Amino acid sequence: MTGEDQRAVVVTGGSRGIGRAICRTLARPGTHVFFNYYTPGDRQEEEAAADETCKLIESAGGKATGIWANVADKDQVKDFFKQVMDACGRIDVLVNNAGITRDNLLVRMKESEWDDVLEVNLKGPFLCIQIAARVMMKQRSGRIVNIASIVGVVGNPGQANYVASKAGIIGLTKTAAREYASRGVTVNAVAPGFIETDMTAKLPEKVKAAMLAQIPLGRPGTPDDVAAAVRFLASEDAAYITGQVIHVSGGMYM
Ligand code: NAI
Question: Who contacts 157 (Cβ-Cβ below 8 Å, separation ≥6)?
Answer without folding.
Answer: 105
